[in-house]
Amino acid sequence: MRAEQLQAIYQHEKRRVVFLIDSKSFYASVEAVERNLNPLKAMLVVMSHQENQSGGLVLASSPVAKKQLGISNVTRQKDVPDVPGLIKAEPRMNVYIQKNLEINAIYQQYVDDDHLLPYSIDESILDITDFWHLFGDSPVEVAKKIQRQVRHETGIYLSVGIGDSPVLAKLALDLAAKKAPDLLAEWHYEDVPEKLWPVTDFSKVWSIGKKTADKLERWGIHSLGDLARSNPYLMKERLGLVGEQLYALAWGIDRSDLGEETVVKDKSYGNSQVLPADYHDREAIQVVIQEMADQVASRLRAHGQQASLASLYLGYANQGIQFNTRHRNQTGLHQSIRIEPTNRTQTLMTVLTDLFQQHWSGQPVRYIGVTFSGLHTEKIQAISLFDPEPAQEASEEDPIDAVVDQIRQRFGTASLVRSHSLEKGATAISRANLVGGHNGGNAYE
Question: So what CATH class is 26-91?
Answer without folding.
Answer: alpha beta
